[in-house]
Amino acid sequence: MKQRVTVLGSTGSIGTNTLDVMARHPDRFEVFALTAATRVDLMLQQCVQFKPRFAVMASAPHGRELAQKIKANGLAIEVLSGPDAIKLIASHELTDTVMAAIVGAAGLASCLAAARAGKRLLLANKEALVVGGDVFMRAVREGGATLLPIDSEHSAIFQSLPEDPASWPQRVEKIILTSSGGPFRTREPATLAGVTPDEACAHPNWVMGRKISVDSATMMNKALEVIEARYLFDMPAQQIEVVIHPQSVIHSMVQYRDASIVAQLGTPDMRVPIAYGLAWPERIASGAQALDFRTLSGMTFESFETQGHRDRFPGLQLAWEALRAPAGACATLNAANEVAVAAFLDKRIRFDQIHHINLETLQAVTTSVPQTLDDLLALDARARAAAQRVVARMET
Ligand SMILES: NC(=O)C1=CN([C@@H]2O[C@H](COP(=O)(O)OP(=O)(O)OC[C@H]3O[C@@H](n4cnc5c(N)ncnc54)[C@H](OP(=O)(O)O)[C@@H]3O)[C@@H](O)[C@H]2O)C=CC1
Ligand SMILES: CC(=O)[C@@H](O)[C@H](O)COP(=O)(O)O
Ligand SMILES: [Mn+2]
């Protein structure tokens, strides 16, 4: 029987790559539902090609626009709108697999719904786990969901770990996350105040959405990934390390107690971890090119402690600081960062101010240990309001 897949965030970079992989295997996969926020015309094209049972837009006006176009094209697809509709199809009894590819904490509620409904949950939406933390992982356990990482580093780690999670604490010395260093790896820290959103989004190796691209440029992406690894693999924060590897060939590594290191390598193409998640434990064609070692010019590594990286990327350290604080600190950090990145992309603040907003918000918001989705959403809202106040002060 075919896997019936729901793609949350189907119009984004991960969403379109997911549909690309699925289209290569019509015998294995069918699209059950698609969701998007603003790109109605792309959603319509996807509906024409994949004929899902449901198409969901995040807001009612976009839902109405899509419904008109679906009707005009004579398609028999049910159009819904709003966050509750996204939750509904993420947990629908007729879907087996949910690709979580909404950007930001906006994806948290649908991830939790899929987890509680026991779905095979393919997690690209790292912010949902950073915000959800233990609440998220509890929902996965209690719902009996299968959680598979899509983030390239976490897919690499998952592929490099032994099959039995019970053996990880005894066997694993540490996790080594690789980071490209982004577009500003060699840039003088003092000049970062003047960079534009387009410069920040010009990632040297990966083509991605604008929010994650800015995160790569500040290395907040790696901070979020440290927190993501902490929860996904139940790994103490002090056993997670970051090394700068500008070529993005090694996607991450696991170091074992005997000093052996196991890594996953490949060209920088998200269709590889997506195909792995869709087919796991099997392997299927992804459409990506394999590495050609005869033409690979080299692999290099830089310590975070050298070449001014600490000054260039002050945000990375916040991951370990947030993980040392009460659990809500990770949600606060994420909310601040989402607000700061949006303000930078809107040209309301400078690039170097992103870190100051994150730091100040972390200091301003007192955190507790959230127990429920409502607790998390309330904390997220409080942290966003605090971050907006810092942005407003910086704008003037
Ligand atoms: N891109 C990549 O290579 C990687 C991405 N990730 C993670 O995957 C997630 C998606 O990233 P990416 O694909 O780059 O992002 P994009 O910005 O390209 O896509 C985001 C998707 O989410 C939808 N969306 C945005 N806001 C909302 C909302 N409030 N409610 C519902 N849907 C919404 C968008 O709809 P619309 O476009 O219609 O407005 C779009 O479909 C992020 O968490 C990112 O960190 C992780 C590893 C690699
Ligand atoms: C493709 C992917 O998983 C991104 O998170 C990517 O890793 C970004 O690269 P850097 O954050 O290492 O620059
Ligand atoms: Mn990543």
UniProtKB/TrEMBL annotation:
All copies of the DXP reductoisomerase C-terminal domain together span 265-385
* Pfam families cross-referenced by the UniProt entry: DXP_redisom_C, DXP_reductoisom, DXPR_C
- Return one Gene Ontology term, BP aspect: isopentenyl diphosphate biosynthetic process, methylerythritol 4-phosphate pathway involved in terpenoid biosynthetic process
Claim: NADP is one of the keywords in the record: yes
Keyword Cell cycle in the entry? The reply is no
Enzyme Commission no? 1.1.1.267
Q: InterPro entries given for it?
A: DXP_reductoisomerase (IPR003821), DXP_reductoisomerase_C (IPR013644), DXP_reductoisomerase_N (IPR013512), DXPR_C (IPR026877), DXPR_C_sf (IPR036169), NAD(P)-bd_dom_sf (IPR036291)
Keywords linked to the UniProt accession:
Isomerase, Isoprene biosynthesis, Magnesium, Manganese, Metal-binding, NADP, Oxidoreductase
* PANTHER family, per the entry: 1-DEOXY-D-XYLULOSE 5-PHOSPHATE REDUCTOISOMERASE, 1-DEOXY-D-XYLULOSE 5-PHOSPHATE REDUCTOISOMERASE, CHLOROPLASTIC
Protein's recorded name: 1-deoxy-D-xylulose 5-phosphate reductoisomerase
Lineage runs: Bacteria, Pseudomonadati, Pseudomonadota, Betaproteobacteria, Burkholderiales
